[in-house]
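In the previous chapter we treated chains in isolation. Here, by contrast, the input contains two separate entities that must be folded as one system, with a combined length of 448 residues.
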Amino acid sequence: MGTTNQHADSAAASQAELSAEIAAIESAYRASDHEETQPRLDYPPYRSSLLRHPTKALQLADPETIERWAPCFGERDVSSLEADLTIQHVGEPIGERTVVTGRVVDGDGRPVRRQLVEIWQANAGGRYMHQRDQHPAPLDPAFTGVGRCLTDDEGTYRFTTIKPGPYPWKNHHNAWRPAHIHFSLFGTDFTQRMITQMYFPGDPLFALDPIYQSITDARARERLVATYDHDVTTHEWATGYRWDIVLTGSHRTPHEDDLGDDH
Amino acid sequence: MPHLTATPGQTIGPFYGYALPFEADADLVPPGRPDAVRLHGVVTDGAGSPVPDALLEVWQADADGSVPQRPGSLRRDGWTFTGWGRCATDDAGGYSFTTVRPGATEPGAAPFFLITVFARGLTNRLFTRAYLPHDQAALEGDRLLAGVPAERRSTLIAAAEPTGYRFDVRLQGADETVFLTYPGH
């Protein structure tokens, strides 16, 4: 069993070689005088990106009507039970029960209300309930690792889940992803649509991970790291983390927002 | 002006397949409806190979040009047009939506499907527009197309087919699709 991963591992680079590539890119970035806040599309240490990043500059577009609106979701789309990933099966999932909560706001700090948040993640052993994940860690029959919710009127989302484990992947030899939860987010404009990953504080794998490091700016990377919050932690039940999400600024005028409220 | 810096995006990764797709996700209208059209294509990488682990989303106006603001995308009832759909690519890199032809949102505007692309190996989502090919005057008057070098403009225009439209997405290469960024990104 343990060899199935290794024989298919075509990745030749060592972690030391990979880490040197990461460090060289970051030091060149630090020597420059511009600030990056998003990941680089062209980031060679993340090998799967080599043939999958556009090489030409993105075209700046003035958002038109459809781009200044986003799809609507409601109670018809999402059951409130879907925010608890620990009650989807018979029996308790294995691992550290954890509440993850925070607010989704736009670039002006306005809450993104009644909007869809989707998450997915590995189980406590670092295994996804996905056929392509053949990493020989146990699947947990009591845990799928998929959740959805709608933000409330303050833009707050809240999930009850199991803290995911780190897991190996094939980017290079002995590559491991820091533990993370995937988040899919919508705003009030479709231009705000994004998918990202939330991490847990203090993960020793941060420096080694080319996906996390594809954001070359240290402050920007830290925006993906949740904060342990003892006020979210509940007595004899679950630990708690807080992670707020800022979407890009809304392009809609207040007048259009008023129209939106009428729908 | 924005005061807060946006949270960075990250790749969708390889394992979204059990999480994000849902029943009838790519059927904005039921196939077979008299005004249904197909919007489909292939996602390829810089070597021209199909990308079997991409996820595309479409967001569009209704046939009359109005912007849908109705819930129900995730649990479709077959009658409510929500304007939004999602489609994971198949093993050949193909995607296919069943939808309606978007109308012009303003008089004279060139109608388009807004397409968002996510994929393993893509560190952040990409946006593009798939314009309808019919109205030449509207295309010629379109501000975005006017700003794109002439030789790349065709990557933004869907090809008409008897059943709808074909729109291929080339992530990299000589005929790379024009991808968009917006103020504040």
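Chain A is about 15% helix and 20% strand. The radius of gyration of chain A is 20 Å. Compare these points with the single-chain example from earlier in the chapter.
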